[in-house]
Amino acid sequence: GCPAKKVCNVAAGSALLRDEPLVESILTAVVSAVDIPVTLKIRTGWDIESKNAVTIANIAEQSGIVALAIHGRTRACKYKGDAEFDTIKAVKQSVTIPVMANGDITSPEKALFVLEHTGVDGLLIGRGAQGNPWIFREINHFLTTGSYLPPPNLQEVHAVITDHIKKLHDFYGPVMGVKIARKHINWYLTNIDTALLSTVKKAYAIDKPVQQLAFIDKVFYALKNKITIAA
């Protein structure tokens, strides 16, 4: 289901939606080659005029796929506009394997709407969790109780982001770790307050792990004490 140009240009990802026989051939071969359950994630179609998710879903089920996830946009949509869930609902009604919905699920209310509208068995959350890993417990609590959890306090956010960034440094090393961590710092801080965007931009000039962690500490010290972050 990947819509990236470099992927689709080599007849992979979402490009496969235009070749249903090839999809069947690939899925059958993969399912036959392994002894573990195989799942599939797709988009609703190549473009608005050629939504074939229902056909692909039936091919997948007949090929032995055990569960299906669908992003509510076509390849042509990429990540623009709003995800639509009518196609996902139609897919759910056409197959017996578990179906999961994906796309623009960014709040407990949206999660409930998608579940009720489509009848799917579960949800996949991607961009909605960027800088906000608490979304999973918030949605689970809302679906279970009908009430909202309070947002995490600054102490918890500080601890989580620090642990996350340290693990990125450890896993990717001091050069790539710092570069990859920049976008995560952006997501975490702007999720707290979009007004922090100008502050986040300062982090992009940092090229050492210890300085990146010190920057995070400085930001949270200022937030906790309600003081202006120095330039």
Distance between termini?
Answer: 43 Å
Shape: elongated
- Uncertain segments are none
Spatial strand arrangement across the major sheet: 1-2-3-4
Gyration radius, in Å? 21 Å
The total count of strands amounts to 4
- Tell me roughly what share of residues is in helical segments: 40-55%
Overall residue-averaged pLDDT value: 90
Question: Can you characterise this structure?
Answer:
The protein has a 4-stranded parallel sheet with strand order 1-2-3-4. It folds into 2 domains: 5-145, Aldolase class I (TIM Barrel), CATH 3.20.20; 154-225. With 231 residues, the chain is an alpha/beta fold. It is elongated, with a radius of gyration of 21 Å. The protein has 10 helices and 4 strands.
Please name the defining characteristics of this protein:
single chain; 231 residues; alpha/beta; TIM Barrel; 4-stranded parallel beta sheet; 4 strands
What's the structural blueprint in terms of helices and strands?
Layout: H1 5-8, H2 20-33, E1 39-43, H3 53-63, E2 67-71, H4 86-94, E3 99-102, H5 108-118, E4 122-124, H6 135-145, H7 154-172, H8 176-192, H9 197-203, H10 209-224
Parallel strand pairs: 1-2, 2-3, 3-4
Helix pairs in contact: 2-3, 3-4, 5-6, 7-8, 7-10, 8-9
